[in-house]
Amino acid sequence: MSVFIIAEAGVNHNGSLETAKALVDAAVEAGADAVKFQTFKAHNLVTESAEQAAYQTENTGVKESQFSMLQRLELDESAHRELLDYCAEKNIEFMSTPFDAESVELLNRLGMKRWKIPSGEVLSVPYLRQIAKLNQPTILSTGMSDLDEVAFAVKTLLEAGLAADKLSVLHANTAYPTPFPDVNLRAMQTLQQALNLPVGLSDHSLGIEVPIAAVALGARVIEKHFTLDKHMPGPDHKASLEPDELKAMVTAIRHVEQALGSGLKEPSASEQANIAIVRKRIVAKRPISSGEPFSADNCDIKRSSSGEFAQAWDKVMDAVAQKDYHAGEGIEL
């Protein structure tokens, strides 16, 4: 199964439906499997006095409440319907992360078939149960969590009705951007070993190296924020890829997953023809007369178009020439 690549548009539309559609176009051009937004009602998500995260203030350059910021980034139901239809027209899967119960109901009513649980909801029991009861493919991000907390979320989902074969778990770090020493890709492998579930990475580091490395380490799902322009105002643009970077990431991931191969150690189809050319054979070092024993004195190994391959050296050394050989001629038994 191919790595599932989610182009995370998030709130990088800045509340504009036209910008959201342009983000869909960019995700399609990059070759992503899905484009994902965020669905929320600010009044359901935060209190009016909740402070911004430090990175949000830094990236926006505006000190305000989370409520004020998020309210500007909401998309209403009609915008969601239009985006869903637009994604269908462009042949890319529409996804959106719901951040509250009302948003789960909205996305379910619209017919979304794959769910993404954000890192902030790992311990939100009612929320987890609401999504689990839908029993549809579900992806759980695990930023800010330790292994016991992830196991708790997984247990909660499974006990509430989500089938294990529909659940994937993403390692994540919620710092925007994530410093490279904090990425900790090996934690993704720890999750896989502990939970025996498909794993992947929701990446917030700069550049494209980390998700590519994650695929090499076994990621089955990759999620990466992208934007039309890193200089646009908003909380997530600076830590997002621009369209050309997103396309480069997708291309590199497809190359890496092809390069991972089957794991069997055997000559590939593309190198079969080189065997006869590159591997050395046993040839006459000098003229050899019929009946003369083969030896290191009269035989050598060189690249040649004829003769036994060099692995037959010991067998040839125990034999006698059955014909005359000229210098450089391949030895045949």
UniProtKB/TrEMBL annotation:
The keyword Transferase belongs to this UniProt entry's keyword annotation: yes
Protein name, per record: N-acetylneuraminate synthase
Molecular function in Gene Ontology: N-acetylneuraminate synthase activity; N-acylneuraminate-9-phosphate synthase activity
Keywords in alphabetical order: Transferase
InterPro entries named in the record: AFP_Neu5c_C_sf, Aldolase_TIM, NeuB/NeuA, PseI-like, PseI/NeuA/B-like_N, SAF, SAF_PseI/NeuA/NeuB
GO biological process: carbohydrate biosynthetic process
Database matches in SUPFAM superfamilies: AFP III-like domain, Aldolase
SAF domain span: 282-331
